[in-house]
Amino acid sequence: MSKFQGEYESTVDSKNRFLMPAAVKKQLPESESSFTISRGAGNCLTLYPKSTWDKILNKISGLNDLDPR
């Protein structure tokens, strides 16, 4: 799994598209071309490469819906 981190200012264009900062693009693995953006803590967004997001979804889908933990 690729890891990258940082705090960057970003914008949304007139069509409500997220514009990824160039500094973030430089850190992205070349083998990944699809990403998921999720709401993080506070007013932050978290960017996941598709391969990482798929692993998170698999883990979540294995949880018991009735277990409060």
Residue windows where pLDDT falls under 50 for at least 5 positions? none
Task: Sketch the major β-sheet.
Answer: 2 strands, antiparallel
* Category by helix and strand content: alpha+beta
How many beta-strand runs? 4
Name the helicity range: 25-40%
The main sheet orders its strands as 1-2
The N- to C-terminal Cα distance equals 26 Å
| Number of helices, counting only DSSP H or I runs of 4 residues or more | 2
Shape: globular
User: Strand percentage, roughly?
Assistant: 15-25%
- pLDDT averaged over residues: 82
Q: SSE order in H/E notation?
A: EEHEEH
Rounded to an integer, what's the Rg over CA atoms?
Answer: 14 Å
Report on this model:
This protein is an alpha+beta fold and 69 residues long. It is built from two helices and four strands. The protein has helices at 22-27, 50-61; strands at residues 11-12, 18-19, 35-39, 45-49. The protein is globular, with a radius of gyration of 14 Å.
Summarize the structure.
By secondary structure, the protein is an alpha+beta fold.
